[in-house]
Every structure is written in C-alpha cells, then in structure tokens.
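User: I've been trying to design a sequence by hand for this structure and keep getting stuck. Would you show me what you'd pick, starting by listing the structure so we're on the same page?

Assistant: Good idea, let's start from the same input. This is the structure you sent:
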C-alpha cells in the first residue's frame, strides 16, 4: 500500500474526487501553518548530560603498594529513552618479593548497562530515532492541541484506503495507530556487557643491569542484548496484523498466523583473549662511556570472538517470561499481501526462522622481537631492531604467515660537543635518523578460494547454504611500509623555547587492493597485493614554558604543525566505473592521484537531444572525450577520463595549539585545532521522487528552483526516467567546497585551594574545575556546513563539565 504525506494525500484525494478542491486547499493551508520542531525537542530529544563519580584509594609499604579505584558514570544521550550506566573497578598491586624478584598484579572489571529505547536502525535503514525524526515533515505533529497523541498512521499506510477497504476491526489488533512517542515508551532495548581483565607479571633481576620479565593477561568480554517490543508498539501490531492471511474480501475474517503479544529478540557475544609476553632486558654502562641497552622477547596473543543470535520469541510476556509457538505452519501459510509467510523476514524487522545463528572467529599472532642500542659518551647512539610476526592466515605454506621487519637508527646529542659549549642560547640539540620496515595483515582475503558456510539453515529449503567469501589471492602476503625519518630536537634560550622537526618518507607496498580481472575467473574484481603509495611530510612542534612572575604566573604553550603528501604510485585498473570512483577507497585508487581523492561529475548544463527544429533539452554531464551524457542513462567509458578529481577528502595540513596559564591558584587553558587544504561535498538538493511518504524536500530547493539550469541540475517538470537522477545529483562538481576549518576544542578553568587552607582542613588537596568542549568552529566554506558533521545527522554538540577532586 503506497504511503503519502498529508499534503500529497489531500491532493490525491481531490484528484480522485473524494474531496473538493476547497477542502484540499483548506487542508494545505492548515498544514502550512504547523511546525513540529518544539514538539520534537520536548517529546523526543533531551539535553545530554554525563555524571561521573570517582573514588581512588592507595597505600602500602616498602614491600607492597596497592591502588584501588572505583568509578560510576551516568550518561544520557540526545534521545529520550536512552541512557548508559557504567561501573568500573580497577585494582593494582606491586609486591617486592625479595631484592631480586618483583610481582605485579592488576585487575579490572567493568559493567555497562545501555538502554536504547529510542530505537535501533534495522536492515531497512529505519527504526532508530534519528531516522524517524528525519522522516517527519514540519506538519507532522506528535501531539494534538489537547495533549493527546496524534495518530500518525498515515506515515505507514494510505489511510483513506485503509479505512475504506480494509476491515481493520477484524484483524488481531484493531488499533492501527502509530506515534513515535508511543513506540519509545513501549520498547525495552537493553544491552548489558561485562568486561573483566587480569594481568600478572614477574620481574627477576639476574645481575646488575640484566633482568627477565614475564607477563600474562587474560580478558573476557561478554555482551547480552535483549530488544523487547511489547504489543502496544506499532511494530508488533503491524507485524501480527500483516502476517495474517486475508483474501482481500472486506467481509472475510483474516487468519492469524502469529500469536498476539510482544516480541523478544535476544543475542549474546563473547570475546576471550589472552596475551603472554616474555622479555629479557639489559641496560648497563661500562667505563662511564659505553652504554648498552638490549631487549629481546616473544609475545603470543589469541583472540576468539563468538556470537549467538537466538530465534525471536513471539507472543512474549515480560511479566510471565512466557512465549508462544506460531499459530500456523510457516511453509504453508500466507500473509495479507498474498506472499508466503516465510517471506516475512524481507518485510519486517523480525525473524520467524526458528533456528539460532552461530558465528566464531579466531585471530592469533606470535611475535619474536629484539632491540639493541649503543651509546658512546652519552652523545652518539646507534640502534637496531628486528621483529618477526606470524598470524593464522589461511594458506598451504606456513612460511607466508611469517614476515620479518627491521629498523636501524642513530642520534647525535650535538649540544654536548665542546665546540658548542660557548653557545649560551643553545640548551639542547639532538639530531636523529631512522630507517626501517613495518607491516600489516589484511584478513579480508585468502590464498585460495574460500566459501562461507551459512550460520543457520536456509529459511525455504531448511538446508545448509554457502557463499564464496573470497575467490583467492595467490600473491597474498603482509602489507609493508618502508619508512625513512630525519628529526631534530632542540631547546633554546634557557629552555624557554623547545621543539622538534621531523621529515619522513613512508612508502607502502604490497597493499591489498581490489582490481579488475577477466570475468572468466568468476568475478570481475578481486583483492591482490598490488597496491603502492607513498606518504611524505613534515611535522613541527614548538613549545615554551615562560615564568612571568616566578612560579606564581607561568605561561605554557605549544604549537604543532603537520603536512602530508599522499599519492598512489601503482594501481592497475583498465576501466573505472563511475561508482568505483565516487564510492571511495580502495575502489577509487587511481595511479598518480591521492588515495582519498574526491571524484565528481562535471555538470555540462542542458543538451539538445532533439533537433534544431524540435529541440529537447536534457541536463547532462561531461562524458568520455568531452561529449555530453544525459543524466537519464548510464555513462559509458572509463570514468577516470571524464570524472573530475577535485582534491583530497583528508586534510594534508593540520595545526594544533595549546596554551595554559597558571595564575597563582588558578589554571586556565585552551586547545585550538585546524585542518586545511582538503575538500568535501556539501549538501545539495535531494531531488526526491513524489511517490510515497513525505517528500522531504530539503532547504536547497530555492537554490535549484531559482538557479540557472546550465549551472545546476534543474528539477524536471516531466521525466519518465527521473529515477536515474539519484545516480548523478549527489556527485556533481558544483557541490565540492573547501573543507578547511578551525575548532575551539576545549577551554578549561580550575582552582586549587592554597596549601595552608588545605592543611588546616586536614586534607591533601582540593581542586574545583570547569571545562567546555567543542566551543565553536570557524568554517571556510560559503554554505556554513561542517565537513565532519554533514547536514541531516547529529551536529557537533558543545558540552560542559563541572567537577571536584579531593585527595586526603
């Protein structure tokens, strides 16, 4: 049943002659005067607030030190019905067994209770509160003038037809109403998680400068999710009603297939992991000039993730904890739309398959490592490291699971040279260089073709099914990065100015990329280790600690600057489709371009597809060879030749600044960051088809309606292939804007009671503080859009924190 907004319903009913033109116009006039913004804020949204309480207790002796900390956090999010509670316990203990042996122990337990009654997004991209709010038009009021809930079932059904042709009273639930507030109040979506971790270690000093340590850690993370919809929710009433069999005869009573009552969805997941590390440490200076620092060891880690999704419980009662069986066989029953009942999973957010779904994955790594450093006369240092890592990749040849990585480096403390002793303004000058390799393992592919066995029986055949998860990558190996870095650290003017400069060149190769292959292989794309790119840049840090009035007034400041240049140097693709380029990494890699390049269609204005005598103008984009392509068909040819590269989505230049001022017993600080040199795609008109629901015409309508059709894609008055527009309009070149921005990240103010007052109170310290985060943003585009928080989603929200620290 098609669904129309209130405005479209009025127009359609007038078109059908069911209401007069005057009634239609009166309805439209009434709707134009409504605005639900305040109701949304009152009934669906709330001010997010976080309350946190910490208690820390420490004590001990020369042979034992203990620390215990407790934390409770109460967090409310943007949406009503949502909350998060966190309980955290941390304990650490350090025991000196004897002069040579130390024992360390730590334990952590964290419990989270998350309520998300505002809803969760389902497989159809609906169900969560943000999607619900987005679907509302300004005239969709949540409550009536008398405070009663508005029946908004017109968002789900074409209500004139529902009321006239459907015997609503004959279905299991005669109430077909819908309201987001009612949905929120009658859901109980709960996720409870328990995370526990213990760690123990021994450190044995063999001789002076030589020790051996062994540490083991075990962690378990259990999560249980229960989503309960009681029978007052529209989701349940709709599900039970619409899964009933009906022959479209108004006088026929539908056959109920699903039991009345709530629906419970239950799933659980467990993560078990352990880490075992053994390390030999040597650090010793000989003859006061030769310092040797050496470590060598092994590390073994194992992580197993298992999950179970249980069958949905229908007719569930949360008080009796009882559920019911289906009233009729799934295989032989039909729904009100005539489809078999077994197809219900495709229409509703519930699963009638009576089987559990199980999944499990294991990641295992083994590493051997060693680092050696030698320093002469506390001035000249050379270092070297070697590491080999192995993972449980699926391969016939175990040698491919291992990959060695190494690095070498050196540094020179130039300020300790005699020829610089007389340079009074130089306090420290350290020159350094490193060269080496590291790597990364990608588990998204395998050496040989793999099939993935379905986690449950097929709904229709009741047999096991499988899909090809990987067609095989015979060149599979670790992704690698070669890094060359030169740096200098300095301190000047009695350490009032300090900083560092780093210049680097990182060349990554054997990158896993999706590449085109002949379709005779069973697929046209497969992942191979054939990608190469480089990142070259510089990072500069400057800082100062400047006493203005002794220790009473002190300014501490730092500035960080970073620039990175990225380019794909090797990527083979003979023919790009347009969706490859605008979909993003790694399909959008083009040799010679930045890996995060934004690709766009070049709008070419109106093109005459008719004749000079009978012109037919259609909007178009530039195609291969510069020829126009209308936006009502598929573009042909290599998209890399006709789409435009408009810059990078990732800022090549970043700047950060932190300043803090100590003024007697007050401390004031602020943090400012900036990103520059990148682009983003702003919001454009959404060209929604008027076929169902609210049209959701966004605020860019005037831009298009009053714009030049040769400069911006116009709204068609009549176009049979209008459905092609959404393949073009979001990716037009005129939507690309400067993404540069400056953020005022944090402002903090604290006051510490003077030591004399603290002493008189019999405590160690008392500090009061206030902090503001996300204070403001300066944007460099003309449309006032934040590139990191696109329109239509949640905007960056400012937050205030007030607290007190008491030590006694």
């Amino acid at each position: 049943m098609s669904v129309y907004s209130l405005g479209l319903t009025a127009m359609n009913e007038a078109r059908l002659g069911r209401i007069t033109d005057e009634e239609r116009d009166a309805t439209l006039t009434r709707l134009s005067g409504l605005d639900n913004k305040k109701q949304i804020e009152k009934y669906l949204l709330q001010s997010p607030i976080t309350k946190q309480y910490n208690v820390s207790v420490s004590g001990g002796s020369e042979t034992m030190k203990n620390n215990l900390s407790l934390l409770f956090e109460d967090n409310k999010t943007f949406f009503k019905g949502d909350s998060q509670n966190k309980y955290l316990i941390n304990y650490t203990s350090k025991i000196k067994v004897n002069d040579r042996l130390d024992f360390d122990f730590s334990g952590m337990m964290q419990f989270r209770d998350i309520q998300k009654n505002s809803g969760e997004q389902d497989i159809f991209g609906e169900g969560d509160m943000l999607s619900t709010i987005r679907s509302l038009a300004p005239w969709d009021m949540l409550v009536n003038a008398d405070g009663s809930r508005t029946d908004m079932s017109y968002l789900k059904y074409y209500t004139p037809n529902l009321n006239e042709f459907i015997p609503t009273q004959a279905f299991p639930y005669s109430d077909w109403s819908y309201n987001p507030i009612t949905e929120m109040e009658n859901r109980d979506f709960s996720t409870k998680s328990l995370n526990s971790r213990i760690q123990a270690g021994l450190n044995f000093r063999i001789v002076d400068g030589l020790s051996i340590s062994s540490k083991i850690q075990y962690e378990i993370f259990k999560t249980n999710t229960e989503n309960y919809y009681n029978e007052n929710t529209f989701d349940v009433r709709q599900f039970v009603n619409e899964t009933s069999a009906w022959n479209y005869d108004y006088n026929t009573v539908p056959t109920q297939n699903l039991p009345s009552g709530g629906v419970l969805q239950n799933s659980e997941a467990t993560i078990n992991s352990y880490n075992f590390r053994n390390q030999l440490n040597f650090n010793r200076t000989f003859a006061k000039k030769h310092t040797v620092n050496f470590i060598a060891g092994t590390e073994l880690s194992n992580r197993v993730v298992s999950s179970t999704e249980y069958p949905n419980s229908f007719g569930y009662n949360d008080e009796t904890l009882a559920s019911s069986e289906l009233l009729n066989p799934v295989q032989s029953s039909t729904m009100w739309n005539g489809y078999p009942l077994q197809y219900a999973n495709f229409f509703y957010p519930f699963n009638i398959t009576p089987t559990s779904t199980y999944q499990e994955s294991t990641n295992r790594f083994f590493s051997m490592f060693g680092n050696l450093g030698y320093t002469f006369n506390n001035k000249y240092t050379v270092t070297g490291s070697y590491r080999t890592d192995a993972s449980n990749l699926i391969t016939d040849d175990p040698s491919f699971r291992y990959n060695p990585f190494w690095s070498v480096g050196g540094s020179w403390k130039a300020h300790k040279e005699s020829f610089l002793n007389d340079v009074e303004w130089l306090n420290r000058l350290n020159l350094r260089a490193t060269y080496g390799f590291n790597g990364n393992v990608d588990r998204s592919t395998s050496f040989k073709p793999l099939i993935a066995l379905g986690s449950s029986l097929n709904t229709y055949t009741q047999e096991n099914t499988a899909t090809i998860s990987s067609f095989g990558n015979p060149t599979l190996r670790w992704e690698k990065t070669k890094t060359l870095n030169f740096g200098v650290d300095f301190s000047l003017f009695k350490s009032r100015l300090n900083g560092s400069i780093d210049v680097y060149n990182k060349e990554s190769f054997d990158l896993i990329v999706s590449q085109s292959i002949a379709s005779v292989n069973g697929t046209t794309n497969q992942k191979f280790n054939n990608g190469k790119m480089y990142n070259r840049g510089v990072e500069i840090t400057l800082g100062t600690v400047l006493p203005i009035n002794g220790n009473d007034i002190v300014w501490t400041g730092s500035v960080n600057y970073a620039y990175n240049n990225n380019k794909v140097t090797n990527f083979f693709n003979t023919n790009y489709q347009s969706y490859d380029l605008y979909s993003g990494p790694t399909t959008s890699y083009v040799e010679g371009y930045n890996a995060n390049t934004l690709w766009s269609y070049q709008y070419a204005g109106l093109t005459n597809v008719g004749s000079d005598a009978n012109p037919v103008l259609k909007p178009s984009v530039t195609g291969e060879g510069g020829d126009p392509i209308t936006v009502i068909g598929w573009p042909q040819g290599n998209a890399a030749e006709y789409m435009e590269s408009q810059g990078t989505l990732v800022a090549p230049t970043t700047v950060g600044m932190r300043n803090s001022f100590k003024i007697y017993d007050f401390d004031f600080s602020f943090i400012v960051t900036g990103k520059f040199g990148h682009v983003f795609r702003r919001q454009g008109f959404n060209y929604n088809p008027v076929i169902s629901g609210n049209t959701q015409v966004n605020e860019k309508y005037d831009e298009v309606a009053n714009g030049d059709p040769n400069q911006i894609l116009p709204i068609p008055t009549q176009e049979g292939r209008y459905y092609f527009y959404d393949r073009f309009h979001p990716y037009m070149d005129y939507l690309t804007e400067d993404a540069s921005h400056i953020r005022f990240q944090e402002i903090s103010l604290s006051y510490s009671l003077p030591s004399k007052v603290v002493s008189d109170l019999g405590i160690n310290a008392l500090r009061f503080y206030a902090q503001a985060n996300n204070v403001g943003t300066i944007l460099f585009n003309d449309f006032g859009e934040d590139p990191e928080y696109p329109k239509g989603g949640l905007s960056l929200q400012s937050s205030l924190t007030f607290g007190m620290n008491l030590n006694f």
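That's my pick for every position. To get oriented when you compare it with your attempt: The chain has a mean pLDDT of 90. The longest strand covers residues 262-286.
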